[in-house]
Amino acid sequence: MTPADGTDGTSPAGVSTAPCDCAALFGFSLPWPVPAFTTSEAHVPDLDPAFRFVPAVTRAILMGFAHNRRVYVYGPHGAGKSSHIEQVAARLNWPCVRVNLDGHVTRADLIGRDMVVVRDEHPVTEFVPGILVWALEHPVALVFDEYDAGRPDVMFVIQRLLEANGKLTLLDQNRVITPHPGFRLFATANTAGQGDASGLYAGTQVLNQAQLDRWPVVCELGYLPAAEETAILQARVPELNAPTAAAMVRLAGLCRSAYRQGDLGHLFSLRTLIAWGENQVLLDALDDSFRLAFLNRCDESERPLVAEIYQRCLARELTL
Fold this sequence. Notes:
The strands form 4 sheets. This protein has a 5-stranded parallel sheet with strand order 4-7-10-3-11. Strands 1-2 form a two-stranded antiparallel ribbon. The protein is globular, with a radius of gyration of 22 Å. By secondary structure, it is α/β, with parallel strands linked by helices. Helix 9 packs antiparallel against helix 12 and helix 10 (270-283) packs across helix 11. The protein has helices at 22-26, 55-67, 81-92, 107-111, 131-136, 152-159, 209-212, 226-236, 242-260, 270-283, 286-293, 303-314; strands at residues 15-16, 36-37, 71-74, 96-100, 112-119, 122-129, 141-145, 168-170, 175-177, 184-189, 217-220. The chain has 12 helices and 11 strands. Strand 8 (168-170) and strand 9 (175-177) form a beta hairpin. It has 2 domains: 15-220, Rossmann fold (3-Layer(aba) Sandwich), CATH 3.40.50; 226-314.
């Protein structure tokens, strides 16, 4: 297949020319085709049949895959930001690699470095490419997690690539890398790049406005409606009966309301809900599994409020 630039909805090299069926895969139609790889490979994420897509966020992500747009997704922890990107990639058979931009990721980790390797039983020094260089040269969707926690020197390495056809210059190699037509770039974060005033996300920082301006697609993903969360919880933990799952989700919603009012210092995420359900299956003790999943991380002064919410939702006392 002749490679295409991927900026006008055409298919990159190695991708099926027939568009995927968005209505069947994601529950809605789009006015432009979305290409998909014909076969899967090792870097394609595992498909989660229980995953629930948020249409607005999914459309933004599909813009990234179909039109080579850079997509920045932000929102609270456990809302499914990275999972949304991975599950779209899984349904498109698109290889996807996640990189967590913690404080230990350096420029050399992304670009590469000279290393001693053994060739023909002799040690030689050669350039070993980093994950960014490797991804640029392959049909891969690269996802930068915790984007607002990256080191400034690392972030400026990424900045040039935020343009649709941005190329990467390796100064020590005298080489300019043109991205593979199937390369895509995404980022997830807990903030919109303006810093965190809540105190929940230590280590995040205010992002450079010139860099933020290079993300043409920015979308927010919050927690799902109660009915959607209940369906996900039951799909992930089928041993839970419907009334118990609904009560657990109702408790999570009330805890989130208490957080927004400043009465709780922790958000009750979907991830925590699933952990509570999984703990319950293992322990067969709803109270103890709740303590392990959420209550023990709360401040002692907050626990009476949490116990009150627990009693209201589950009609049983929680011993503190």
